[in-house]
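Just curious. Protein, please.
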Amino acid sequence: MGLVLKDCDWIVTQDPQRRILANASVRITDGRIEQVGRVNAASKDEVIDCRRKVLIPGLINTHTHLSMTLFRGYADDLELRDWLENKIWPLESRLTGDMCYQGALLGSLEMTRTGTTCFVDMYFHMEDVARAVDEAGLRAILSPGMIDKPDKTGTEHERQSTLKFLEYIHELHNPLLSFAVGPHAPYTCGPETLLWARDLAEKEDTLVNIHIAETRGEQAQFEKDGKGRVAEYLDRIGFLTNRVLAAHAVWLTKSEVKLFGQKGVRVSHSPVSNMKLASGGTAPVPEMWDAGVPVGLGTDGPASNNGLDMFDTMKMTALVHKNARWDPTIMNAQRVLDMATLDGARCIGREKELGSVEIGKRADLVLVDLRDPNLIPIHRKETVVSDLVYSANGQNVDTTIVDGRPLMVSRRFQKLDQDKIGEEVRSSIGQLIPQ
């Protein structure tokens, strides 16, 4: 028995030729794409009618903090340091595992609703986050955030917590969930912790998920402390490798970008969060492309975005770069869609399995409803990608499928209870932020 997505108006394949197929279908068997094009459904197949819909690869969010759904709208319109030190960090110190579980369920609900099928996360109480994502059926790379403590005992506890979570992921036996090492940033982790993270990632054949050069202030402080530019410092201590997934990477010089390319560093670009927190400037993504740096897209956490909608992030990515460079051609719709799909897969080392609608790849797929008013009309095949990037939003998603399993069909959740999650989150907020 297979799953057939029948008679899509369009299939945006994202294959090497970037083909867009008209009036085509897809057959899924055992979690993989078996046929693309003309498909005859067998009597035992489950069939989803895809007329008036466009099929795209599932979107890949390369940087977020899922449980921060709990802080959505809590501390807006503040400078980053003030936001972190006076609002977010004090509240995070009161988080419990159950609160993070509820927040992660809410985030999973939002991702399912808006077409994200795979994401990279860093936060606290990650066993509870993993439990929520396991229930939701999404694909994820999860990393407990590590921050050096004032004493060696505290720092060692951070490392042991990371190793404990690694063991927890192994014991889950869920092929959709994997582990990454998560040193928070070069300004919160010293060289010993950074190199410990590098070595663990090498041993476990996984990523190092870290914030790098998010703000101008971070670069200025490193130079004031005599460490030089952040990327050069990280290279000097031997940290930069092709396992590093650098979130933000806004404040980089051309030489640092070139260094990223030489070392194989991957970058997660989060323009909405960068603009909201006024990080200043715009990440030098075109220069990263020239240097061969893979660049995916991230929403960052729902406290600094304030959502997890990757369609919103795609549009903002195109617009902020056009605006910053005074060039409407600098970042076209196709390149932005690549960042949310194929390039995102490259950033997590899964390009052979994810990011396109091709035979043999995992069936992480999304259907977008073309009956919605903001997606009428589609003029011709050549405008489909443009419509997805500039006109669509996450609420246009009709169906979300991960590894061949429908998580939402016709906007109805198949695994998660929206009303129950909403009530439990409201209860958690009542405990966390007494009125």
